[in-house]
Amino acid sequence: MNDCSLEELLSKYNIDPEFQKSIGVSYRSPLEDFIANVFGEKPHIRYGGSVAKYTANSNSSDIDLLCYFRSSYPLSVENIFNKMLLELKRHNYICEQKNSAISVKGKYGEDIWDVEIDIVPGKYIDNDEKDVNIWQSRTGNRIKTNPAKQIEIVKKSSMKSVIRLIKLYKTAKGFKFKSFFLEMFCVQIIEPLIREEATLLDKLIAFCSHFNDIGVKKVIDPANTNNDLMSIYSKQDFNQIQQSIKELYEILLTNNERAIIDKIEKNAYCNTSDIYKRDAKSHSPKLNCDVLIAPIQLTCYYNDSNGRQINSGDILCKDRSLYFKAMLYEVSQNISVNLIVSNAGYEARNCKRGDLYEMKKINNYYYYRYETTKYNGDHFVQAIVTINGKLYYSQVFVVRIRDY
Questions:
Q1: 316 half-sphere exposure, CB direction, 13 A CA radius
Q2: What are the E-state strand segments in 49-163?
Q3: pTM of the predicted protein model
Q4: One-character DSSP codes across 313-357
Q5: Which of 398, 403, 168 is nearest to 265 (CA)?
Q6: By the 8 A CB rule, do 377 and 346 touch?
Q7: Strands of 155-295, DSSP E
Q8: Can you give the pLDDT at residue 61?
Q9: In what order do the strands lie in the sheet with 366-372?
Q10: What percent of the chain has pLDDT over 70?
């Protein structure tokens, strides 16, 4: 899979510039006038959140309207927040109180708006008008932040498209993953690990491969290190995020374009075993997955002091040496036994193999070959022999490698 399909998916959910203009005319301007009238002065108002950071998708984005008063404004940030909520309700706005924002969805007696506007009231700390205090209604505390700094950090990041793809998946699957935490995890934990030549798919897989670090590796608010972002979620919430991202990671590793796009956009189910099998057969035409009666028995063992037998389909770790042994039920002179090894999936994309590899003879009935587990995914191994001009196959042995 290349990046084209991912880029097309993102283009499908781009924010229409004309829609942004209509938001300004239909919603932002009337709200600005209302706020100025209620508070007796016009605060500094700007777009924030995903729209300002270029990580917004058209199917899920609320519009954050940052509404910051001068440092000398007579009301405290708590009173500003409470007055904003009270006056909006008093003037028939449909509101929902959030932790640091007031979500406005329309007015009673009128059609519900096409988009929710999240007004974030705040108050500048000093005349520099950079750091602001915002009110947290959940905890009853004010907290210092710097939205301009947060916005610039994300805007400069090479992970914006990854953030958008995860947001699309979050919307399709329906799990909680706050944008700010997602953005900071991408920027602080994942981006330093990304190679300069990495594709969008590489970056997305790198993000998802660290699903177990979400809620474990600490991310911070770059505007205020005392703002504990890890407290946003409970352990149970973080576990749900981890499992959801792991689910996407497993689909990404198949490297199957249709399955990946459908998973991100629709949370569609797919059978990864079938996808891996089709991939393996596509570059190994000799692989025969329809063997009913196998005159060759193929067995597999760990190549170590224990030599424990492995069953087809067992989940194995990477970097383990394996010992494959073929047992023939029918013997003829001057025969050779070969092993088909066909890799599948994203990690094996540059080493798919699929050719015949000679097995060494133990005696007339037994042959062997060593292999090593290397790539996540399902990989397919089969013994093949020609006896009296006829091909005979063993059953297909599936090597399932998972290092996560």
A1: 29
A2: 63-69, 93-97, 102-107, 117-124, 132-136, 141-145
A3: 0.91
A4: T-EE-SS-EEEEEEEESS--TT--EEEEEE--SSTTTT--EEEEE
A5: 168
A6: yes
A7: none
A8: 67
A9: 309-310, 296-302, 321-328, 366-372, 360-361
A10: 99
User: Distance (Å, rounded) from C-alpha 49 to C-alpha 23?
Assistant: 15
Residue 113 tokens read as 């708006």
Report which of 24, 18, 14, 22 is spatially closest to residue 57, judged by C-alpha positions. 14
Q: Which residues of the chain have pLDDT under 50?
A: none
Residue 327, sorted as left (phi over 0), alpha (psi -120 to 50) or beta, turns out to be beta
Q: Whose structure tokens read 């399709």? A: 172
28/13 Cα distance (integer angstroms): 22
- DSSP states of 14-30: PPPHHHHHHHIIIIIHH
Domains, the chain, in order of start with CATH, read: 16-154 (3.30.460.10), 157-270 (1.10.1410), 275-401 (2.60.40.10)
Helix (H, G, I), strand (E, B) or coil at 114: coil
Distance CA 167, CA 25 (A): 27
Task: Single out the residue of 204, 187, 301, 199 nearest to residue 252, CA to CA.
Answer: 204
Q: Which two tokens stand for residue 395?
A: 């059953």
